[in-house]
Amino acid sequence: MMSPRRFIVAGTAALFICFAPACSRAQEPAPPTPPASPASGAPAPEKSQKERYSHANDFLIIGTIFDPKGYAFAGVELRIRRGNEKKYRWDSYTNSRGEFAVRVPQGSDYEMVIHAKGFADQRRALDAKTGVSEARIVFHMESAEGVKK
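^ that's the sequence the OP posted. Answer follows.
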């Protein structure tokens, strides 16, 4: 009778002999694809020439929101839209220190709405056409009249 160690060695050797030829075969290379001939005769543009979006010309809106007692107000929702549109395109929330920062494209008028449950919404118009690259805003939230907290 064979010992368990010899049985394992013999089984491993048998597997190696069976599968070694399949593993050692070189994978055949795929046939080369024919180069696409441009229809207009002009060379195709390279991907490296593709324009990349740069945030260098963005308008940065930075701000802080405080509660009625003057403490930082975390988790306040802010939404931003262009002045001539109905749909809000940008939204964010304040961090644990009541601060926020949002980048929008320069060259438009924007409207910002600040919303927190139990507090009156506040709106602020922003002008991003003046050439200044950022706006710093501070909001002091006020309790909404007749709303349960």
